[in-house]
Amino acid sequence: xxxxxxxxxxxxxxxxxxxxxxxxxxxxxxxxxxxxxxxxxxxxxxxxxxxxxxxxxxxxxxxxxxxxxxxxxxxxxxxxxxxxxxxxxxxxxxxxxxxxxxxxxxxxxxxxxxxxxxxxxxxxxxxxxxxxxxxxxxxxxxxxxxxxxxxxxxxxxxxxxxxxxxxxxxxxxxxxxxxxxxxxxxxxxxxxxxxxxxxxx
Length: 201
What we know:
Elements: H1 15-42, H2 46-49, H3 56-63, H4 78-82, H5 87-106, H6 112-132, H7 154-166, H8 170-173, H9 187-196
């Protein structure tokens, strides 16, 4: 007498449920992308960037520059200079920037005095990032290739020509264009202390 093992076939999911699942995944994807885009756009505004009271000093300095007000009426905001346009670097910048909120809450830079004490260290980190990216954000508006050197002052013309020949980038010469350039700390002790403390930049 032979015993045959009966194998049960798995139940098939009705086609309409498969289609429904695909539609739901698609809608969830749209919702995620839409929410992420809204968050990125909202956190790129000048109002958001200056909403922390420790940013008011930077904001006041910015208002005194040509990036804020100029004859052409073209304004460069915080995001134009500090947030990359490409989605990958932009997302990384947004994630890393969350530490600024953390340090505001933790009290590392929550007063003008604390902010000024850390200012050179924070600025130096921003300059390093700009140098590493070949002043990528600056070049969305300014580029050697698009400059009419004949329209520039003699000093600017010679400096820009020399910088291009040497392979220098914007931030090599233009520190302190929008925010006051902080003085470098005196002595190695200060520098070592700055490196040892929590980095809010």
